[in-house]
Write a structure and sequence with these properties.
The protein is of the alpha+beta class and 120 residues long. It contains three helices and four strands; from the N terminus they run H-H-H-E-E-E-E. Helix content is 50%, strand content 21%.
């Protein structure tokens, strides 16, 4: 009876080892496909408006007043509709909706100087 149990154990190990080996061979045979999937996933993430970025922090207090005045003076019209501090493009970003309905993002440095604009 011990020989039967031992034989069954050996057979089980051989079959199990074969399954593990087949799994490892399959995993190793397609690293390019796995890598391509990672690249495609990372590109999808970029297309999802960088969902892994920290949340936007609105400008507040006196900085909000100064940034709003700087943006509106630069554009000569419009209404401030959104703000963000430490934007990826500048220190402050002020979104202004112009009188014609178009939106312009005004980029400001830490001293509230305009360093660029972007039209949505």
């Amino acid at each position: 009876m011990n020989k039967k149990i031992l034989s069954m154990l050996v057979l089980g190990l051989l079959l199990g080892g074969g399954a593990v080996g087949a799994f490892q061979a399959a995993a190793q045979s397609s690293p390019v496909n796995a890598g391509q999937a990672l690249i495609e996933d990372s590109q999808d993430d970029k297309d999802d408006n960088d969902r892994f970025e920290k949340p936007d922090t609105p400008i507040t207090g006196i900085a909000l007043e100064k940034a709003s005045v700087a943006a509106l003076n630069y554009l000569g019209q419009g209404k401030v509709t959104e703000t963000e501090i430490e934007d990826e493009e500048s220190y402050y970003e002020v979104e202004v909706t112009l009188d014609n309905g178009h939106e312009v993002d005004v980029q400001l440095d830490e001293s509230f100087n305009v360093v660029g604009t972007d039209t949505d």
